[in-house]
Amino acid sequence: MSCFRLENVSYRYDKAPVLQGVDLSLEPGEILGLFGHNGAGKTTSIKLILGLMQPTQGKVSVLGGLAGDPQVTQHIGYLPENVMFYPQLTGREILKHFARLKGASLKQVPALLEQVGLEDAMDARTRTYSKGMRQRLGLAQALLGKPRLLMLDEPTVGLDPVATADLYRLLQGLRDEGAGIVLCSHVLPGVEPYIDRAAILTDGAVKASGNLGSLRQQAHMPVSVLLTPANGISSLEKVIDESATTGRMTKTGQGTLRVDVQPREKVALLETVMASGEVADVSIHQPSLEDIYVHFIGTGGLAHRGGR
Ligand SMILES: Nc1ncnc2c1ncn2[C@@H]1O[C@H](COP(=O)(O)OP(=O)(O)OP(=O)(O)O)[C@@H](O)[C@H]1O
Q1: What ipTM did this prediction achieve?
Q2: Rounded distance from Cα 40 to ligand 1 centre (Å)
């Protein structure tokens, strides 16, 4: 049974279409990174899965039931983008309050607070918490009741690099126990090793989805081969000029040559340059998740301002 399945889903607020024909699903034991520019429709997709809104068109099924059904919702953990708590209450009091609301056992509260690194602060009022500590408390709230589907909107906001890596490891542990996890983010650096699949949303449509290998294939992006000359850079340039490669050669400024080649040409290029005796060292750089994201989103940057 899928954690959720969006089939040909469209949604419009007032007149403006926000999602258009989105097909997206998540299986148990999988971490999906949902990436997209401001206003791409990430939060709207999450709200549809939570059953807070109904799609204008298409079907949303969650954990084998209907989105919004309380029997389904009790198995979902959700960390919203901006977490706010009663400032006068302690972390422990707040988590107990949410546990009662969710019908989850109160016994797990101290253990969850420890799991997110708030063991020393659980009895302090949350008005004394830093942004990162509030984010951790939000995460503990999302983990109440051992959810089968966990949806985290910008979970790393406010977390330092060590806490971010801890969070990703925690999520991997939950994934290995069978939870399905959606990670919505603009923050791509560092996330690559921790997700199983990525979906890239732009202007309300899924532009590409799959694991990193599949995304690289879909993007047809070149691989960069970085060559350090053994003798002189001009003799190495000559070897590449005379080879069959259609790749683009550039001098890096650090005395090396970079050749951007299509993946299918990479081995032939390496064979040629290695046989020439003109290469002292080689490194190969595959497009990263960020490169792939920029490829699909375009370099519009602030042109995607979130409105339409
Ligand atoms: N309540 C609303 N009424 C009208 N339009 C809305 C509403 N909420 C969101 N939108 C619009 O829907 C589009 C998608 O918004 P959404 O919040 O889903 O994007 P997002 O990908 O989560 O963006 P961000 O990364 O900035 O949080 C945007 O154009 C936004 O302006």
Answers
A1: 0.96
A2: 7
Question: What is the pLDDT, as a whole number, of residue 304?
Answer: 53
Q: Is the CB of 40 under 6 A from ligand 1?
A: yes
Instruction: Quote the DSSP letter at residue 303.
Output: G
What's the rounded mean pLDDT across residues 9-13?
94
Asked if residue 170 lies in contact with residue 142, where contact means CB atoms within 8 angstroms, the answer is no
Ligand 1 near 39 CB (within 6 A): yes
Region 83-93: mean pLDDT is 93
Q: How far is the CA of 92 from the centre of ligand 1 (A)?
A: 32
Architecture label for domain 4-217:
3-Layer(aba) Sandwich (3.40)
Which of ligand 1's atoms lies nearest the C-alpha of 40? 21
What count of Cα atoms within 13 Å lies in the side-chain half-sphere of residue 265?
Answer: 19
| Residue 305 Cβ < 6 Å to ligand 1 | no
302 CA from centroid of ligand 1 (Å): 15
Task: Compute the C-alpha angle 266/270/275, nearest 5°.
Answer: 155
Average pLDDT over residues 144-148: 93
How many whole angstroms separate alpha carbon 227 and alpha carbon 284? Answer: 9
Q: What is the pLDDT of residues 292-305, one digit of tens each?
A: 998 888 755 555 54
- Please tell me which residue, 297 or 61, carries the higher pLDDT value: 61
The residue nearest atom 6 of ligand 1, judged by CA position, is 13
Q: Indicate yes or no: pTM above 0.90.
A: no
All structural domains of the chain with their residue ranges: 4-217, 222-286
Whole-number Å distance, alpha carbon 79 to ligand 1 midpoint, is 17
Task: Please say whether the structural domain 222-286 has been given the CATH code 3.40.50.2300.
Answer: no
Q: Is residue 44 within 6 Å of ligand 1 at its C-beta? A: yes
Which residue in this structure is represented by tokens 């449509």? Answer: 205
Pocket test of ligand 1: the residue of 44, 47, 81, 187 to mutate, having most ligand atoms within 8 Å of its CB, is 44
- Report the DSSP pairing between strands 76-79 and 149-153: parallel
